[in-house]
Amino acid sequence: MNLITILEKNRIEECKKNWFILLSIEKYFIEKYFHWIKLEIHGKVLVGNGVLKIGDKTYSIKLSYSPFFFDYNGRFETIKINDKAIKYNSKIHLYNDLSLCLYHPKIDKPILKTIPLFNMIPWISEWCVHYEEWKKYGVWLGKEIKH
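RE: above sequence
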């Protein structure tokens, strides 16, 4: 293991050790700035639901956030849109589990840091706009790194 890998592993372990503080801070900032999301801490996971309105369209959003997810997907968050019409397609920036791909976990994530969930919330709106454009034009018009 190289030094960065060791430091990253230690950082994740610290997040797991202090999970309640981490989730409470995220909950506080999201509730302060994004009133459309309702959040609760269930076990060691911050879960949220909300309805995002963009123009005349509404999107039912479900999110989960926990440092314990990192071992499974390399991310703390899982953000999904509850819409049966949205099917997996790598061109629309979805993971196989239909969670949104809002950033590249290796390229966009700062070294030895986690992107805070409250910073990702506006990216959900951007994803929705780009999704609607993709349905219209067949091209993802947002910034992207090909999968």
